Amino acid sequence: MKALMVGVVAVGSLAATVLMPAATANATTPNECAEAPAWSAGANYRTNDIVKYTDGSVYIAERNNPGYNPVVSTYYWDKYVCGTGTGNPRHNSFVVTEAQFNEMFPRRNPFYTYQGMVDAMRAFPKFANTGTDTMRKQEAAAFLANVGHETGGLYYIKEINEANYPLYCDRDQPYGCPAGQSAYYGRGPIQLSWNFNYKTVGDYLGKDLLNNPWLVEQDPEIAMMTGLWYWNTQDGPGPITGHDAMVSGAGFGQSVRSINGALECDGKGPQYVQSRVTRYERFTRILGVPTGPNLYC
Questions:
Q1: Going residue by residue through the chain (297 aa), what tens digit of pLDDT does each one get?
Q2: CA-to-CA distance for 250 and 255, rounded, in angstroms?
Q3: Within its chain, how far is the Cα of 44 from the centroid?
């Protein structure tokens, strides 16, 4: 599998098209147990958080805990009775408030919504939910700083240079390019491109992005999910993922390497690395945490 080709080094290569989100109907509140996320070892849970265990049973946290097994750690967990309304299925609430998100991205495109970010996080329960409060905020700041760099401050949704669009179809893949030769251009907060990447992330998320890559520029939640997918599962040109860089102590510089190290790190693009670092420093100040070590790659 080829590596994800991301990390556009200049905003000029992104898209100038500004899309507005489509109106959505008011949704009814889903059943709390149906909404409960799968339990994830190592994630931080708070009192009254509910999770769905591997056997389908739902448990409620009786005490704060760092991801203990609900079946084994009965001091921290108890079986939950659905429909009581006392459990919190949205346990991985974002450490960045909506006001802070807006402060970080004052000129963001309305397409990139705070709710889209929060909803996307449900697919990645360890993101900004691992370790201490400081670590969680540092990871959130790091992710947002990197995607902010990629999109001109969450402004651009699509790659600007339309002349590049036909280049992202790898016909050597057995599934080809069913959406068309020019359908797999960069989209979303991480500027996802190439048919094989749309196939891989689509399979991971359970979305048919190979046949309908336009979903990434139409649905704020799916757009953010593609960025979080890369951050949490792909190491790109680096030795570890962006998530692992921030929770292991490797530092922000290693998250840059995982996204665009081949073009920016080791002195290849210091101005672009500095752009990312400057954003990260600003975002950690907004969240009230130190930057941690190893800012540069």
A1: 233 433 333 333 343 222 222 222 233 234 788 888 888 887 778 888 899 999 999 999 998 888 899 999 999 999 999 888 788 887 667 899 999 999 999 999 999 999 899 889 888 888 998 888 899 999 999 999 999 999 999 999 999 999 999 999 999 999 999 999 999 999 999 999 999 999 999 999 999 999 999 999 999 999 999 999 999 999 999 999 999 999 999 999 999 999 999 999 999 999 999 999 999 999 999 999 999 999 999
A2: 9
A3: 18
- The catalytic residue among 32, 150, 159, 264 is 150
**32 included as an active-site residue:** no
3-state secondary structure 167-186: HHCCCCCCCCCCCCCCCCCC
Lookup: tokens for 161: 């240079």
Nearest C-alpha neighbor of 297 from the set 270, 274, 272, 265: 265
> Which residues neighbour 56 within 8 Å (Cβ) at sequence distance 6 or greater?
none
Distance in angstroms (rounded) separating the CA atoms of residues 205 and 203: 6
Contact (CB, 8 A) for 130 and 42: yes
Say what the pTM is.
0.77
